[in-house]
Specification:
Layout: E1 2-4, E2 14-20, E3 23-29, H1 49-52, E4 54-60, H2 70-73, E5 76-84, E6 89-92, H3 104-108, E7 110-121, E8 124-139, E9 167-171, E10 187-191, E11 194-198, E12 205-206, E13 217-221, H4 227-232, E14 237-241, E15 248-249, E16 262-266, E17 279-282, E18 285-296, E19 299-306, H5 311-316
Parallel strand pairs: 12-18
Antiparallel strand pairs: 1-8, 2-3, 3-18, 4-5, 4-7, 5-6, 6-9, 7-8, 7-11, 8-9, 10-11, 13-14, 13-17, 15-16, 16-19, 17-18, 18-19
Length: 324
């Protein structure tokens, strides 16, 4: 499926802003009618294995059968992003799917899209995306909404909870991974002003329990920079931080310990939010999954669920014949 590289408008989105005293929590779940566009490094010779390994997770609005034509592609609304942790498993945020898990038919309509190749035509870039539906979707540590205490929710409407905000999806078919292919990122001219470059699907390595997060980190996310980016732009973007930025802070200074295991970053770029399923990398290894943003006055943090304490559980979730 070829996806043109251009900007589209958000047709549908959920945007939750909860304020109490001087603390503001922002949780964003991106729902939009147009397909995702992957990150393009300004240096064409420096492709990004981390960003290209991010997958889009779509809700197929009309059918459970995916057709490789642009008309059908327009009926997919992006719920969140995630990463392939095996050839048949995807890790993402649970809050983006909290309501969907109550409806088996909607869960069966979820499809994961992995980038296969870039197609260059004069000044345009198209994306060849491979979509697979899911046969299983589970929170890493399942919790019924009724068992979550009031102070463990974002807002009075019980829309989002920080507790165990991780979910694993199992695909109906395996992806053929390309991490070590010799022809990865090799530009092949296919005609006048046209070329192709194989870009995936790529596997993402998870940080293990005893691995230490450094300071040279990067985040990959959609819809988070500004209000315009949230409402009108679905472009996947990357932001790098070096050791001098020193953006990692102690979460205990910002949020209750009972909320769970997190990695907190100072919001030095003054982003409006962090998207569900945004990826936090260090040394090409995934350490966190985007959950929510929080502000106290003019200062704020971006909050990622720390995957390290869940390492064993993540690999076991949806890894058997567990069905939707």
């Amino acid at each position: 499926m070829l996806v043109p590289f251009r900007i589209h408008h958000l047709a549908l989105k959920i945007y939750i802003l909860i304020t109490f005293n001087i603390i503001t929590i922002t949780s964003i779940t991106m729902w939009k009618i147009e397909p995702m566009h992957w990150y393009e490094n300004p240096n064409a010779d420096d492709k990004d294995l981390c960003a290209d390994g991010v997958v889009c997770i779509n809700l197929d609005l009309k059918t459970t059968k995916l057709r490789n034509d642009s008309k059908d592609n327009e009926n997919h609304t992006v719920v969140a992003t995630g990463v392939l942790i095996s050839k048949f498993q995807v890790l993402t945020s649970f809050n983006a799917f909290r309501k969907l898990t109550r409806d088996k038919n909607k869960m069966r309509s979820i499809a994961v899209g992995a980038l296969k190749e870039r197609v260059y035509n004069k000044s345009n870039i198209f994306y060849n995306v491979s979509y697979h539906h899911i046969v299983c979707g589970r929170q890493v540590i399942p919790m019924r909404d009724s068992d979550i205490k009031t102070d463990n929710w974002h807002g009075k409407d019980h829309l989002h909870s920080p507790l165990h905000d991780l979910m694993v999806l199992r695909l109906e078919r395996n992806y053929t991974l390309r991490n070590k292919d010799k022809d990865l990122y090799v530009r092949v001219e296919t005609g006048q002003d046209t070329a192709r470059m194989k870009s995936g699907p790529l596997l993402t390595v998870l940080a293990k329990t005893n691995e230490v997060l450094g300071r040279d980190i990067k985040i990959v996310s959609i819809g988070h920079e500004t209000d315009k980016h949230i409402y009108k732009n679905f472009q996947l973007l990357r932001h790098d931080y070096d050791s001098e930025d020193n953006v990692v802070v102690d979460c205990d200074q910002w949020i209750p310990r009972q909320w769970g295991h997190f990695i907190c970053l100072r919001n030095v770029n003054d982003f409006e939010a962090i998207a569900s399923g945004a990826a936090l990398f260090y040394n090409s290894t995934l350490y966190g999954i985007g959950s929510f943003a929080l502000r106290k006055g003019k200062k704020g943090i971006l909050v990622f669920t720390d995957v390290r304490p869940y390492y064993g559980l993540i690999n076991e979730t949806c890894s058997t014949k567990d069905q939707i």
